[in-house]
Protein 1
Amino acid sequence: MEKYRRLFNPLFILFTGVILVSLFLHRCTFKSPSAPVWDVGFIIPLISEKYTMEKLADESDNIEIQGNQVLFNIDHELDPIEIGDYLKTNGAEKMTHIPLPNNAPDPFENMVNDILTIPDSIVVNNAVIKSGQVQVTINNQTDYGVRIDISIPSLNQNGSELPITLDISPGGYLNWFLPLDLVEFNAGGTNQIAYSAKATITWRTGNQGGNVEVNVNISDIFFQEITGTLNRVHLGLEDQSMEINLPDELEGFRIHSANLKLALRVGVQIPIIADLIIEAINPRNPGFPTLISFQDSITNVTGDGVMVDTLEFTNDLEVAGFINGQPEEIVVNGSLKIGDGQSTVTVVDTNTIKAKVLFKAPLTVTLPDYITETDPDTIEIDEDARERLRDNLMSVDLEVMIDNHLPLGASVSVFFDSTASDSATLYSPSYTPNLTIGPLQLDPAPVAGIPGLVTGPASSTLSIDLDKEQLELFERPEIFFGTRLQILGTAGQMVQVRPTDYIDITARLNAVVRTKIPENEEEEEGGGE
């Protein structure tokens, strides 16, 4: 016990402590205090672009979005037809002989009744004549001075019958005109104009009788307003052409079926027959139909000016073949015929018929390979993000993610450059951009049904480690980028494209930076714009 106490006496403990401290200080060294170091993930968004079928439609006059369909569309407004230009008749002419006897007593008169028959393309009940004339020619083959009174009861002005009284000398000849502007014409629906010519002897140079020839000619009549029957009045159409504006992406496409209509805006209630010829000019694909003959009729036009889409060409496959020839131009000619020869209508000269030729085809198509290149856009990276990349970068990669929602395969390349702000430079074969990603090969999106409709996107992701030289590009405050899409076509298979189909491209820099101070959440998410 005495020995044990001596081992742990105070002097022994002090001596042992000094030895241990000396050994520890000899073997270890101490650094000055310092803050911890973190490696932080840092994301800089670069691209977020969606290339949709709607954008393609915006670039073409012949592609339109209607509901959930993408339509190939051609429509052309024909020049308005003024019906007043066709409310006319060449009129009628009749020679009447009024006999006067030899040694006629004094006074003496004789009257002859006759009929003028106007052409039956327009059968008039009543009308207002806009312009026209009555021409009366008299040849007096007697020795008598004669007064001729002509009565045409169906022609009235201001409620009164037109007065036609003419004097002619013995053996004389007279040619006389009367304008019919704003004269009322009441024909009673027979197209026959009854008239009478009365000759009264007023004086004489002898007693030799004979005939007084009276020729009545109603000509060049244009109607301001008419109630009656129109019998297929022919409204001729001059050749009218429309150019076909296809985007380059659709050159060589084939549609499955198409619809052809003639849309009419009619200002009068009247039956109409359309008889058109539509011709393809300079087709890009020989062997397809170049002419469509189109005839149809409207028998129940309301006359309220509403567009009527009832004239429809029924052979959709023939129309599709016509369009698949891809003409540079389409020419429309032919005629519209108004009236059916039975219905009584009221028409004024200001009535018009406006017509629009419409081709529509859902974009159920086969497509060839084609390439489209987007206009260069700008990436701006803020100063804070550039400083982090420059001063504290540990590693960085460029990640490109693509969703393909088209029923078509594609190849995508993305170009980054510090100076090429225009397409001619960025995509020039002789120019090498600072950084090119791709081409990335994309499978078509999955489809179902016939024709194939996309059921979901096909996705692809590419990640590339950037070296120092490539990284220097992103230390600039402004960068230009563009995308080249090569659509790989359908290899002859019919697919249906919808407005919601797209290719979506996202690109970002994934960087790891080292920092000596704690990072707040906002800074760790990145600083790109």
Protein 2
Amino acid sequence: MARGKPKLFICIGHQSIGVLELDGAKADRAGQASLKTRVARTLRIPHDIDPANERDLASWLAASLEQAGCSSKGATLVLERSDVVAKRLKLEGVERGDVDLPGMVRYQLMRQVAFQTDEAPIDFMLLQPKVRSLKEVTGEAEVLAATAPIARVDHLRKVCEEAGLDVQRIAVLSLGLAEIAASAMADRVGPTLVIAPTLDGIDYSIHQAGRVLSSRWIETQHRTSEQDLTELVVSEARRTRMSHQLTPDSDAIHSALIISEPGGVFGDDEEIATRVGDVLGVITEVVDPRSQPWLSVKGEWESERLLGLIGLAIASAKASSGTAGQMHQIDLAHPIKPADKSAAARQLIMAAILLLIVSLGAVKSFGNLKVRSVEADIDALRQAQQKVQATYHEAIRQHAAAEYLHRWNDARASPLEHLEQVTGLLPSNEAVLVKSFSWGARALVDYPRERGQSGYTPSNWQDSVVVTIGLDLLASSREVADATRATFVAQPSYTVRTAGPDGARANNEKYPEQLELVMESRERRPSTDTQPADTDAEKTGGES
């Protein structure tokens, strides 16, 4: 590993901590990397330690690292996918040598995240092959951008600092898994779904031609049996494909890859591969990372949940040897900064101030300046002050208008999750038939003034979303219709009202009862603590 590079990789999850310390790492000219590990362990956070308490967590972490034999102080802090928002962005109209590409990335990403990004670190990496400088980008730029809530980043930094670690880089765990996956699927064409374990969950990512097209993460802490885990893996694979298909200009998934050790996190990984292949209709393979020639790790390797850290170590070794193929690896501790467009203006202001100081010094030094000349200078400065104030007020007005448009544009909800929630609440097809489903959402943006407030405060902006769902049902009996309505009324996520006449009849022998409902919700994502309708048809064994 390059001298001065951190040899300790640490990922602090919400239930576990992954630790990887290296004795060395190197990559050959062909891009194949090998690692020599000193410590590779997963540490389960004790139940009596609150992960939100920085001091307690840091004290336990320091003791655990010492007990494990870790001696490095310079560390790469790795963020789990649940703590990171990562987006693939296509930016058009980029001129050659346009130094404001970081500003374009920040603006686009700020529009697509749900948390405040004013102080959040935002970094990106170019996805174009063989591009090693921003000045080489022209026409269209394709980047992978990442950010994380500043509160979470600061919390993890403080934990590391109190544990005696020097955070020299902040990386993203999914990119380490992408490094492992890229080596495993070097001969594949078309989009490939890669499923791999992480510290507290499972990472789903779609890869094509060495690029990460998308990624998502789910937690697995509440899955107590192998059957539950199998069902979760299969259902989330189906959901990942649905999300990918909704992306504009996306190709269908051609294959799937499950990275798993025999008897590891996934248990019967061959059964999972078979079921995922059946659901997606693609060839699905299981790859044991320990048996692959492209992964050379010397030393003990405790768990496949450390794959992401190992992948980041390999990527770091490639970057040090010049074989990484990327000009920049995402580092939220040292993000690429936008161009400072106000620098020229500040220089002009400083020059004007300097000129004013010289003028006043001349007035003091030479008492023969005329009073009228001094008064003329004062009048000119007053006029300049008025122009500056007018520009300031215009800037506030434009900021308020832009903030309103950004919040109105960002106020979105998830129609697929609401649809999945509503259909999950319905009884079997033998009891209820869905005649029609409609969806709508409207944004509510407001700027309330606090008592006594006179100036403009950007933090006063508030926004929310109102989701409206129309559901037209045909029921096998009035009892089923009433039970179905009661089920929706009982859900905390929705306010329900009947749209049509109560007790209306339908011209259908099997489903004679008609039920029209209108549901409203102010939740962008519905609550998952729901139960479907309990009807007589289901009690008698009706299939859904």
